[in-house]
Amino acid sequence: MNGGLASALRRLKSGYRAPYEVAGAEPPERLTAALVRNLADGVGGRVAYAAPAGRDGAVVESWPPGVAGVDDAIGVAQVRGGGSLFVVAPTRWDDEARAMLHDTAVWLGVAVRLARLRVDRDAADLRARGLRAESDAVRARLARVRDLERHRLVGAITTTTLRDLAGVRTLLRAVNEEGAGLQAAQEKLDELIDDFRAVVRGVFPAMLPDRGPRAALEELAATLPRRVGFAGDLGPRAGWQVESGFYHAVAAALNTVAGEDDPRPVTVTFERDDALRARVTAAGPLTVEELLAALGHDVERVAVLGGGMTCDVVDGTAVVAVRLAERVEPVVVAAAEPAGHSPVHRQVLDLVRQGQAATDGLPERAGWDAVAERLAAPRQDPVVAARQAVAEMTGLVRALPGDHRLRWAVERVGVDAHEFVELDLLDDLERGDLLRGVASPAARLLGAHGADPRSRLGLPASATAAEVVSRAGDEVTRWRAHAEHPATSGRDRVACEVLVRTAEGLLAP
């Protein structure tokens, strides 16, 4: 009993608190520093938390501040989650002090895991917001497609049918009691029924699901008054929604250019690459304005589906080109992100998607789409592409309301992204402005010879994760020491701080 009281009195005098009390009192961002200082108070010595594990690790937190080495540590405990906790030159080192070290290491592991979980949560939240904006944009696009389809169906079914029905009604009213004029009414009614059947085939062509868009278009062409020839090939079958959208766009073009009798044939040429393509050409009197007036809804509908439909007249020949990608998705989603893209590239990609969603249906959307297309382009450095995208977005966000969160987010990623700072420093090193004599290893660490951790650290591709962590710790120590050297200039010291942060980012393989 007396021993327990004496132990409690010693803890009270030293200011040591149980680690769980520290965890309950300190905010998460200060918990690591508070636990380290609490242990130092308890053992009456220096305490350092270093990562990675081992006596040569880089010190992350210490009390008192500035503990650089742990070679003379009396006690060490592994921290679950990464790193080790060291006790140096304690005034007391008994079983109770060892228990303090062990308990603090356990709670320090909790603090490390909580910090990582917070980072993961923030990244997931950013991703969720981007996906939510993307989902809203897709819903808006689908609603627009439904509206355009409704207008197309109403026009296809009612316009011609009601006009012909009015003609039948007029002829029936002219029939007298002897039946004169009934034959003409019958012929007009038969013609109306045939036209209605053709319209229904156009709305839902029976051959489209079974034989594809080319066969369905050939069936439609057989009902038109002008001869239509087909060339080229559409390759393997695509999804139903793609084939249906493609069919209706080409069918609208055929109905427009081949709807009147003319001895000159219409030509439809098919192609297939990453999209279904058709080029409809027809000599005749149609102008570009007339084509756009007749096909305006179809042009907009294909654009909403992620494709394109253009109308032109070349040397008296109407040319309608239709393109619809194999996957009906927004530009950014359709472009697969190549493996190896950096976190800042993914972050900028999310911001671009949010910009597309915020300007959907507005003229400003085109600017965001252009940024998205360049950002997703292959065969380019992802960080360089991301920095260029941020520069372009800085101008685009000016069109958004002053309190729009995207304005702040774009500014923040441009200022905070460490990868952009690395690029700037790499440019300075190439010009010979900084770190003379050690510029080559600095450039290597910044990714001049490859962006993967092993290339940055000068290790072979076969190096293990432990070797990566060990070499990264050495780099942290090296550049921190260079920064603290009295002969290091202010600009070189800032460059060393960038290199230290880069190396610290490689400590987690």
Short account of what is shown:
Helices cover 59% and strands 12% of the residues. The chain has 19 helices and nine strands. Helix 7 (213-221) runs parallel beside helix 8, helix 15 (418-430) runs antiparallel to helix 16 (439-445) and helix 18 packs antiparallel against helix 19.
Overall average pLDDT: 79
Give, in order, the helices and strands: HHHEEEEHHHHEHEEHEEHHHHHHHHHH
Model regions low in confidence, pLDDT < 50 over at least 5 residues: 328-340
Tally of helical runs: 19
Largest sheet: 5 strands, mixed
- What gyration radius follows from the Cα positions, in whole Å? 36 Å
What spatial form do the alpha-carbon principal axes imply? elongated
The overall strand count is 9
Can you list the strand order of the major beta sheet? Answer: 5-6-7-9-8
Distance between the termini: 49 Å
Helix content: 55-70%
Q: Kindly estimate the percentage of residues that lie in beta strands according to DSSP.
A: 5-15%
Which class of secondary structure composition applies to the elements?
alpha+beta
